Batch of 3 targets.
Target 1
Amino acid sequence: MNILLTNHHLLSCGGTEIFTATLAEFLKQNGHKVYIYSHYVNNFLSKFSSLDITVSGDLKEFSSIPFDIIHVHHNINAIEIRDIFPHTPIIFESHGILPFLEQPPPININISHYIAISEEVRQNLNRYNIPDDMITTIGNLVDTSKFYPTTTVNPVPQRALLLSSRIGEKEEENIREACRQQNIELIAKGSRFGFINQDDLPKEINKSDIVFSLGRGVIETMLCGRIPIVYDYLGGDGVVSSKNFDKLNFNNFSGRHYSKNYTVNDLIKEIKRYDHSQGEILKNLAIKKFDANHNCKKIIKLYSKIIGGSSSNNADEKDLRITRYISQAIKTTREYTYQLHKEKFDEKYNTKNKTTKIYKIYYESYKRYVDTTSNNIIQENTKLKSEIQNIEEKNRLHQENLNEIKSSKFFKIWRTYNNIKDVAKKL
């Protein structure tokens, strides 16, 4: 099959970004040709390039490809897709109940079927009058060949990992204090704590006994045989066990089941519920629910069913006119946004600081990016950023070498000798 996947943005290691990358990889492993549309691309481009998957921010680049089906994340993309591909079957997948982008389009654009990542999301789709027979619940996709135990979990917790990109300072402080009082070393990763590559994440999880996280982070923790505590910016559901696994999975381990605002003492109580023997049990439960290969085959089976069936949800002409109108509004707004940022950038930097190599790389990279978002230019942008990193790394190494020389005994003796020599000349 020729399959187009969409995600509104591919900027960080967020849930839908990682899901899109994982789905694309496993679809390709199953022999399908995969393309990706996303208008905002940054760190994730290299991931798709390594898989030889074409990514573009311009749907016109794909307009001549006869797609069999389009798997859409995010309502804005759904409307854009229907405008360019008026007859291709669309599956809309929703990953949450709160974000605006996860809500289904408010007009009928002839979506063939919906996928909900959890039962809570299914209920949210029901609220938009989408019937159950048009919704299939398929859990998250996690690569179990990457996330698996490599070390034995300790009987008494010694090390914890805080894995979050959105947790607040108060919640972070509570976790740190609870771990301190229990003599548990805490490491924090994600967003303001420091970016962690998805390929390095299993190693970091396997160093820990407890992981504080939510959603996908909880699932990855269980697959590594560790004990997760669901706690983040939405509140918490506490320690996951085989007894509450299904209950918390209903809400995709989001912290919304109980939504508890834990105090330090509350967190200490949760830590004391730690049972290392649950690690193996939770791992097996997670494999059954979230193995990427297994769930990808479910999605492929759904694709085939949709392609082979007929749509009974045809949009009328009025809805199609609204679709075209919204799609054009999105495109026009983007064009003016880019133009404004380009003018501001030119005004700020055009007459100063243009002599350094680093500046020229930044400037040329930016100019190319705002002029077009085609795949080739985005790849060039990535190469330029790599050049910047190499230059900065060389500068750092030179500075380290210089500092090492300055701190050496020989340098100090040499400097003293020259000082004496200068004084002698004046005598």
Note: The chain has 15 helices and 14 strands.
Target 2
Amino acid sequence: MSLTNKITAISLLSLPGLIFPSCSKENEKNLPNIVILMTDDMGYFDLSCYGSEIQTPNIDGLAEQGMKFTDFYCAAPNCSPSRAGLLTGRTPSRTGVYDYIPPNTPMHLPEDEITIAELLKNKGYSTCHVGKWHLSEWTREDGMTDPTPDKQGFDYWFAVDNNSSPSHMDPVNFQRMGEKVGPLKGYSCQLVAEEGIKWLKKMEGKEQPFFLNVWFNEPHHKLASPPELIAKHSDLEPKEALYYANIENVDLAVGKILNVLEELQLSDNTIVMFTSDNGPWRRTSAGHFRAKKSSLYEGGIRAPGIFKWPGKITAGSVNNEPAGFIDILPTICEITEIPLPPGKHIDGTSILPLLNEEEFVRDQSLFWFFYKSSPTAVIRKGDYILTADPVENYRSKSHPIDQTDLDYLKSLKLVKFQLFNIKEDVGQDRDISELMPGKLEELKTEMLSVHKSMISEGPMLEGLISD
């Protein structure tokens, strides 16, 4: 889909009489505001509401006032593809974001992908992104500039294209609407929260609904935490104290945003979602799940998932149904009565019935693919997880994706399978495929179908280096 076609496709969504009437001022009053809060590399067990020793009262408060998902999943086991999946509702490899985006690679989220922000903007929302982006690179050595957040539907943005540098403290690489900000004083999560708050205050008194997308850099390396928070954990090893303080600093930043929503009397009509982009680099943060970040075992893709919507979501509720990032776009579309993007295969299913505690039927089982991981593909249906690998797993010789990588992922065949009951075997230690051949074949058939569809749709990338 060309950029022209993309604009046409989004415009079609608001043509009177074609799908639904364009958003009127009266309709805007009834639309909920939407805030997405996401951390970077936080583990499932890094929040006290998920069993951690680390105290996170503000995030815990979201769970107390909303719904906590026990089986919530990222779209991928590392950064860039997971973010692509969240914004598009599509398995990331369909979009061409096959791996995380390192410096000087042509891989990025294409402009012809339709994001949550674009759909909401077309519906009349004001849109803002603050924090880490990592769906494109703005400082490539070849002088090329990949799409910035405004090209993906955000009216306003304040961001870094990857990690805050030199660390979370006093970052020097933030940009605001394409202009370098220069050295800043403070910690990344607090600076991001403050920027989001400034934007929120500009929304005060306006009837226009808003979408605020807050993607924190913490607790991704390189860590930096306030000394006063580190000092609270003098009984721990220094690295552990640094990590605990890092999570607590994010929680304080979340609290500031939530407090301002209350002060501006916006909370009652605002959906707030909290999650993390992928599994943790810190092994203990994955708890009893197998593996960690970069793996398609549970430790690499299971994440916190909390939703608050006063008057709509039952306070203190817990949901055990599998759900994840790719469900967010179709959920928002159903809530706001926006049609799904035309001409795009949406892998997710609206979880509005789950938020309403109603019967839920998934259109397509949750599916993951990451060519550098073993397992290489995973599908979950109910309590059962099927993992798959090619004959021989690939070990890339290049950190950034190169032409050899792309040729491999486009041609690999899934032939080795293992079946797990995740409710009975959270550590994924016992392959039960021989005990349940019918279930094996059921999940295998669906996995191979989705994988074939994904591979055929995933774009080739121009400008990759050859091995």
Note: The domain at 29-355 is CATH 3.40.720.10 (Alkaline Phosphatase, subunit A).
Target 3
Amino acid sequence: MGHHFAGLDLGTTSIKLLITDDDGAEILLLHRATPWRSRPHGMVEMVADELLSVVRSLLEEAAARLHTREQETSWVNALAVTGMGESGVLIDVTGQVTAPIFAWFDPRGEAEIAELPPDVAGDFSGLTGLPLSAQASVAKVLYLRKHGLELAALRWLNLPEFIVFSLGASPASEYSLTSRTGFLRVDEDGPWMAMLDYLGVPETFLPPLVDAGTSLGTLSQDSAVPSPFRGALLSVAGHDHLVSAVSSGDIPPDRYHVSCGTAEVLLRVLSTPLTRQARERLGAELINCVRHVTPHTWVLVAGTKSGLVAGRALQLLGIRDRLARDALDTLVMARVVNDGPARTDTIEVTGARNDDGVLRISVYADQSDPADLFTAVLAHGNDELRRLIAAMDREILPATSSFVTGGWASMRSVQWARTQVLPRPHFSDRVQETAYGASLLAQKTFVADGSAPSWNSDSDSDSSVGPPPQHTIALRGEPDFVSVRAPTSAAASL
């Protein structure tokens, strides 16, 4: 039978479960819609129990499929969970969730961010590596506090950490996800105490910090858990875009890794974070300098909401399934091939900037059609990418190649558009880079635990699993500190 490894990806649009074997071959891929609830004024949230129900249903179906495939019980030896950043839960001392889960693009918290004391607001981008905006998790926590939630006895878990905790692991804060919160100092790899003091919470508000892939316990032996998953090692794989990057192997020092999901993200790997002044300049352009899922490594993360805007444009056109989307894709590309691209001066689209997300359409001419609208969406996405690339190029050496992944990247029209702005792009043919990267990290956890040899290492080599260490890129200027990593042992359960 061999070993099996599971990668669970908590995506904005859907939740994916991928099972791989000892050789890294994909055995099974399942998905369910992420159970968001839409509310007025762009507010989007989720009930924790509904999220857990979706995860349980995926585990149950996977167990049944594995049994059918193998004709006997097949065990999943390790499971790693990745997912969106910024979204998370506040749990009490009994482990119960105390508030809804807000989507990372939910606008709640904007007013509370604007009310931060001047010294905290002034230090925000320089110390956290994040833009000062409502996207950071701290904005949602401030919103909940303002609306009556007492924080002092609570703990924060990012969404993948919450799932792992709910399955039986110890609570932990994985670096790359916690880098998205506004609670972590990127220059010290520890809690930002000034922010925790402002929230009125102790340092234990954050569980112990750990690297991606750290073993945090085993999946419950409870009879409610499908038998193939009982006892599986549990770990947090980290922030989804970064996990997608490591699934593709080594990132050359001059390459963008581009993840085209609901958020479209350009990623560059760094051996050390940039100076505080550079982080502040990049923060003003909505670009992050945060921790990578690879230990002792950082990343620049420049994002747009191009996928969110594109999805809303398709909904407006009544396009709600893959068949209809492919038809529109074919129409746009037929015009590119036969007539040249659709005119972009007849329709203007805005909303993809990372602090926006509201689709706005201005139509300046008659007889515009869906192909014109989608071409305008693509052109707007390109404009946002050009702006971000220019800002990054002012701080680090320009990239000379790109590797593009994600659901939107399978569309030929998206490939055509991004070829106009990205240097030497190569488009991935893997269906689920992020879930696959999580399964690799699950295998790494299993091997590090001493349970089995790695599938991609010889008997006389080391026991690392997954792609080789990331190269790093040349920086403009020198780092302003030497990083010391926090201990990676997990604390006892609540």
Note: The two ends are 36 Å apart (CA to CA).
